[in-house]
Structures are given as C-alpha cells and as structure tokens.
Amino acid sequence: xxxxxxxxxxxxxxxxxxxxxxxxxxxxxxxxxxxxxxxxxxxxxxxxxxxxxxxxxxxxxxxxxxxxxxxxxxxxxxxxxxxxxxxxxxxxxxxxxxxxxxxxxxxxxxxxxxxxxxxxxxxxxxxxxxxxxxxxxxxxxxxxxxxxxxxxxxxxxxxxxxxxxxxxxxxxxxxxxxxxxxxxxxxxxxxxxxxxxxxxxxxxxxxxxxxxxxxxxxxxxxxxxxxxxxxxxxxxxxxxxxxxxxxxxxxxxxxxxxxxxxxxxxxxxxxxxxxxxxxxxxxxxxxxxxxxxxxxxxxxxxxxxxxxxxxxxxxxxxxxxxxxxxxxxxxxxxxxxxxxxxxxxxxxxxxxxxxxxxxxxxxxxxxxxxxxxxxxxxxxxxxxxxxxxxxxxxxxxxxxxxxxxxxxxxxxxxxxxxxxxxxxxxxxxxxxxxxxxxxxxxxxxxxxxxxxxxxxxxxxxxxxxxxxxxxxxxxxxxxxxxxxxxxxxxxxxxxxxxxxxxxxxxxxxxxxxxxxxxxxxxxxxxxxxxxxxxxxxxxxxxxxxxxxxxxxxxxxxxxxxxxxxxxxxxxxxxxxxxxxxxxxxxxxxxxxxxxxxxxxxxxxxxxxxxxxxxxxxxxxxxxxxxxxxxxxxxxxxxxxxxxxxxxxxxxx
Length: 652
Description:
Elements: H1 8-15, H2 26-31, H3 53-76, H4 82-97, H5 107-140, H6 145-157, H7 159-166, H8 170-181, H9 183-191, H10 200-213, H11 222-233, H12 258-270, H13 283-286, H14 296-309, H15 311-315, H16 325-330, H17 345-352, H18 356-369, E1 374-379, E2 382-387, E3 394-396, E4 405-406, E5 409-410, H19 411-420, H20 424-439, H21 456-471, H22 479-482, H23 486-494, E6 517-518, E7 524-527, E8 541-545, E9 551-555, E10 565-571, E11 575-585, E12 590-596, E13 600-606, E14 613-615, E15 619-623, E16 626-634, E17 641-650
Antiparallel strand pairs: 1-2, 2-3, 4-5, 6-7, 7-17, 8-9, 9-17, 10-16, 11-14, 11-15, 11-17, 12-13, 12-16
Helix pairs in contact: 1-23, 3-6, 3-7, 4-5, 5-21, 6-9, 6-20, 7-8, 8-10, 10-11, 10-12, 14-18, 19-21, 20-21
C-alpha cells in the first residue's frame, strides 16, 4: 500500500479523533448473505425439511446417489504414503495446539508464540508439499469431476433439503435434474463457491428466471457470469408463490428481486456506466456486486450523483479508494439520524452522515453501483468494508484482515481464498481436494480460526491455498494497516483520514475552460475554474474535470480553513444583474457568501440538489462598467459543493 507509515504519533492522533463508543455493525450481519470457499459453506436451517410422500422418495433417491458416488470416488483414490500423511496430520495438530496470547500479553510471550507458530506453519507446509507432490496428478486431472460435482452438491445441499425443493412440482424437480445433467454448469457453480445456504434448486430457479428475461445472459461472457453469481448469492425470488407445500420454510430469503437487479446492471453495462474492470469479473466476484441492500433507484442515483458531484472519485488512479473515497470526503462521521423527507435511503445517508455502520453501507453502495465486488468487514465494535481492486482485495474504513471478519468467516481466511483464486489452474487442486473431502464425509476446516480443525483432505486443501500464494509470490498484504491495533483501525475508519493521503497535485486547466462568455442578451457566464485565486488545487478547493466536458470546482467539506474564490469580470454595460450559481450539492440548504467589488455582500442559499445540477435563486446585484471583482466563500462548517459556473443576467 502506498503512503506513509503510521507512526506512534499518528496512532495517538487517531485515538483522540472521537470519543463515541456505541455498539454498531450487527445489522451488517443480519442484512447480508455471506459466501465462503465451498468446503466452508454451511446450510443455514431454520427448520428441518418438511417432506411429503414424494419428498421422502426423492430424499431416498438423492441419498442413494450420494452414497453410491462417494463409494466410487473412494475406490478410485490412490493410496497415500502413510508416513507422509501422518507427518502432515501431526504437524497440523501441533499448529492447532498453539494458543494465541491474550490481549495485554507481554512482548516476550508474543514473541515466543510467533516463533513457535512460524516453525509449526513451516513444518506443516513442508509436510503438505510432500503429499501434494505425490498426488498432484490426481488433483489436476478432471477424470472424477462429474462424480465429484454431484457429490459436492448433494453433500452441501443435503438430500433432504434438495428433496424439499424438488417435491413442489415436476418443474422444480426438473431444475435439479437439469443441474445434475449439466457438468459445465455444476463446475461453474462450484468454482464460484456453490449456492448460498446450499439452495441449489432455488439458485437454478433464479438463474432460469434471469436467462428468460435476458437474451444476453444466455451467451458466454460477463452477463452470464453475473446472472449465475446473482443466483448463487441470492437464491430466492421475493414474493414468489411457495408452491404446493405450505410447510416449506425457505432459508435464504432476500428483499432484493434478482431479475430486475440483474437487468439494472445489464442496462448500466451496455450504457458504459460501470467500471472498466467489470467486464472481466469472475462468477465468484459477481456474487458480491448485485447483492446491495440499496434499491436499483439508489444505485442509479449514486452513479449520476458522483458523475456530477465528485467525478474525481470515479477516475482516481488509487483503485483501493476509487468510488469509496466518497465516504471519507462527504459522509460525515456523526450520530446516525433519520429523516425520510430528504429522499431515498442513500440520499438521506450522505446528507446526514452517521456512525461506522452507515458509512460502511454507503461505501459498499458506491463500489457496487459501479460494478466493483464488495463485502462487509467487521471488527470489534466497528463496521467497515472490503472490496476488490486490481491488486487484490483491500479493506476500507477499518483495520487489517487479521482483526476483521466477513460474517462468520475470518478476514484472513477470506483474503487467502481470494488470493489463491487468482491462479485458476492451481486453485482447481484446492477444490478437488475439498470435493474429495465431501465424498469422504470429512469435517471442515474452521473458517473463523484460520486453518484449524477439519479432516485430512480439507486440511490439505487449506494448506494448498497457502502453498499457491507462497509459491506464486502473490501480492503483498497492506503493510500499514497490518500494524494497526483493532482500536487504532477503528478510529482510523471513523475519522476522515486516509493512509497515504499526501501532496496536493496540480491539474492542467485549459484556457478554453476558463473563458468568460457574454451572450447576445448580455448574460455573462463565468466558469468556476476562471478564478484568479486560487489558481490550482488546495486542501480546500479542487479543480476537477467535469464528467460531461469542461471543468468545475469542488469546494470541499474537509480542509483546514475557509478559502475565498476570487474572480475578475469585465462588464460591458453597468447596471443591475441577477446572479445565479450552477451548483451540485448532497446536503441540506446552506449559504454561500458573495462579495461584489468589496462593497456589496450577498447571501445566497444553496439548494439541496441531491447530486444534480441546479441553479440558485436569482440575487440582484449592481455591476459597474469594466472591471468587477467577485469573491465567493462558504460559511464553516460547510458541506461539499461543486460549482460549474455562475451567471450575471441583465435585469430589465
């Protein structure tokens, strides 16, 4: 990660940013579905499957299929070197037995633990490499794949729950039959992490509905991957009739209607409104794009608002903060309040600000709106977000992965899985080891206690990921955030600081964009960037390229002190003129102070434009012939405002 190291002085500075200590972030876990590596997906049962006679018959059929295929797979597995297997299992036991020092432990205790852990991990990885060398051919071979796929789905979905879905109608059963007959689709599903909650029938139902609604989703490419990722992450269509079995209880209901959500993104993609990287997202990454808690209306509004209000956040080269920088710059950290009269939930959130939970939700909205995968990232007493970047997943607004989790999945576990997935061919070794573990009915490795527990094949799968990342010299972790304590990370997330914020860069301002225009009717249009002071970026004033052409100024919420925007305007005819400003705001009305020729003061109220361009109400001023000086400033504490231009229109 670029930028300065966080010194102890900086850490102390962060510690005094806020004294608020409220409980928050729990709603993040309630409002979102979570997905992990396939072996770690656990079916969330709110009740045991309720089966009728047909359902019992189907459960028997699926159970026999699972048992038969598992037996066949076990018989085809090669014999393992027992000494190597024993060495791997023993090394894992020694590693699992190490107890992490409690908070407040002495440096000597921590150092001793870290040394022992490093040694035990090296020993386990070495033992794992020895086994992988013997069975690499098996894990790279697709000979058993069709059987492994079916076993994995049957084990994860469970025969009873799959039967519960299939018993509803012939059409429901046909969807599962179709899945089990489509080897390519099963593979794509499982590589992408499997169906959330084991809801494979429901995922097929959603996927089929999306394909019916979109011809483009039926063809290979990003829209097909988005359709399947959406169906896997959110496998239930809200409001759908639950069929002939009233006792069925669905376990992964969502408020999001997946078909309109997919069509929203399809339209945005075709209109070139999404990030350029969107077209290359994998099915697994697509899972974390469409599952925003906000409405399609808010997603569309967010894109439009940022194009008007903060276009610099859309084009910034720092991919870790592209889009989500809006949280730091324009969503104040303050007590969370509600006022539905301000507009949609997203418009309300940026207008009022809030504590870490609201800011994290808004950050996820900003990234997902542009097609960037995003997940929750919570730590003790704090809510944050993690997001995709070209250099790997990163955390915004909170501490490093070791102190965070995504639902029940530990942050380090998710980070490791995301890094290993970058190497698709090698990652198949991980998946095949997990699928073999499914066939053998092994216990899973803990997704919370980084690599602990689990059977032989699942343990081997986990350490295969470690080996892949180590051998491929995968991207470095965020070294600066890794040094933060959970409390320091929380305070950094709640402040408006960003690690790496540094020098203020100048921008080229073309002369054509500074040209003052006088129309035939005498109306004088002054571009905001035509100011004589400041002449380039400061910590308070940003000169920005407008999304629709030309340039604009953004008078920032943050910054050390108020600053004057100074202009010189040559007026051909003296007289009265109506002054209006073309502005874009995201907060409730506040004032801009205009000083004309050092004598006349004009208080103009900025509208609450909700991220759209809007003109202020006219204010009549006197201008003299020739040179006139105009000064604009905004009363502190101000909220951000973008200014495209202002006009003086002759008053007759």
